[in-house]
Design brief:
This protein is of the alpha+beta class. It is built from 6 helices and 11 strands.
């Protein structure tokens, strides 16, 4: 695929907002993309990335809740709901070293990208994820993604939520930051919008909310509530 094709090709992706509460304030885990990155260089982002074919090969013991499954399936490829949730957990582990998992028996025939995760004697804690946002990168960008955003409490992480010793080098300056303070960082536009959405969710965590979905065609942008 050449550079022109990449600009038009949209890859399915998943992103996770890992949250915790300290001294009465909600914090989110963020990192900075490298200066040489082709997509959003130097920007602060949440852990995430493209959904891999191997993410479709894992079948968690505890699936996503039914409402999330339905919303993730709207205007989407078949069977993507679980794969998106698993990709978010895998990307969190690869980019930060944190494992959103629980003790369990590893399945047979583990895909290569997941072997290190299951080697810890755990299984993905898919039931801890909450689907909250979806956005497609606008046309004209060097990379385009159809990204599903999830949030989860760091209480579901095994071990310390500040141990980044096994993180990859994809994100630098990994740190926890107050949700309001995060707005002062150098952020992509969609990250700013997602931050506003998660702040609203944390202010009323028990209220029922629809999931915003931004996407584009050749002529204009669209907004749906899933």
């Amino acid at each position: 695929m050449d550079d022109i094709e990449k600009k038009h090709h949209i890859r399915d992706a998943a992103t996770i907002l890992l949250l915790r509460k300290r001294a009465g304030h909600h914090q989110v885990l963020m990192g900075q993309r490298g200066a040489s990155a082709a997509f959003m260089p130097n920007k602060y982002v949440f852990p995430g990335g493209a959904i891999d074919p191997q993410d479709y090969e894992i079948y968690p013991d505890i699936p996503l809740n039914g409402h999330a499954m339905v919303k993730l399936s709207i205007k989407a490829p078949a069977n993507i709901a679980q794969a998106a949730a698993l990709a978010a957990i895998r990307e969190l582990w690869e980019e930060t070293g944190l494992i959103l998992g629980q003790a369990g028996t590893s399945p047979k025939g583990i895909p290569r990208d997941w072997q290190g995760f299951f080697a810890k004697g755990v299984v993905p804690r898919v039931g801890a994820l909450n689907f909250m946002f979806r956005a497609v990168t606008p046309p004209g960008r060097p990379r385009r993604f159809d990204a599903r955003f999830f949030w989860a409490d760091s209480a579901g992480v095994l071990g310390s939520d500040e141990d980044f010793s096994e993180a990859s080098d994809e994100l630098g300056h990994l740190h926890w930051i107050d949700l309001e303070e995060a707005k002062t960082l150098d952020l992509p536009f969609v990250t700013e919008v997602v931050l506003s959405e998660i702040i609203a969710i944390m202010l009323a965590p028990d209220s029922s909310r629809k999931v915003p979905f931004f996407y584009h065609d050749d002529e204009r942008s669209h907004f749906l509530l899933l």
